Amino acid sequence: MARWRSVPLIAGLLLAAVMPATPAAAADLESARGIALPSGFGADLGVANGDEHDDHRDAAEPRVSGRPEDDAPHGHGRAHRNEIGLFMGGTDERGHDTEFTWGLDYKRRIARRWAVGLLFDYAGGELRNSLLAPSVSFWPGIGGLQLLAAPGIEFHEGRNGGGHGGAKSGDEVDADATYFLFRVGLAYDIHLDNRFGLAPGVNLDFVNGEQVWVYGLTLTYGF
């Protein structure tokens, strides 16, 4: 009797060797052995198409929705909606020495690559110029590069000498004045950690028919 009981097992093994490896054939074979297969077994694993390796690879590899800069709100690798900055640098105005300049900057994200904000700069020494301007920033997706445009107002304190064509002689005193200004600039974001960063940059101000260069380093904090 034991010999006859082994006949179904031997038949099943021979059937597995000669039948095509299809889901239907596999289901028939396993049913003959008394084993029920889960629904869609062959389709889920892709055995017939040899896709089982792709499924294992997909499970092991995390799905990436895009480059890090694409997923970040500003397109430059960080996810903070707001950013403030402390600027320190110099202002190079024609006819004057380069003067120390400090400033404050605020940006608010409005889209993945766009932000609006407000900036304030003060150039001391002979210049005595204060700048206040709303700003628009754009990250083109080239590393941490950011572009800036800022139309604003420059408040000029009177001083001896020239400056924006105000005085023609050393005997004259330059009066207080207010000028329309348009700034274009570029900077590069360098992340120190999740919140702090550095942004070296250079700006060109068009003011009262002159071109003034402002360059320096901004310490940023995101929140």
User: How big a fraction of the residues is strand?
Assistant: 35-45%
Number of strands: 9
Number of domains: 2
CATH class category label of the largest domain = Mainly Beta
| Tally of individual helices | 5
- Briefly note the structural class of the backbone: alpha+beta
Please give a handful of descriptors for the protein shown.
alpha+beta, 2 domains, 5 helices, 9 strands, elongated, 223 residues, 8-stranded antiparallel barrel, Porin
Q: What do you see in this structure?
A:
The protein is α+β, with helices and mostly antiparallel strands and 223 residues long. It has 2 domains: 2-60, no CATH class; 80-222, Porin (Beta Barrel). It is 20% helix and 42% strand. It has an 8-stranded antiparallel barrel with strand order 1-2-3-4-5-6-8-9. A hairpin with a 6-residue loop joins β4 (129-138) and β5 (145-156). The longest helix is centred in the N-terminal third of the chain and has 17 residues, at 2-18. 23% of the residues are buried.
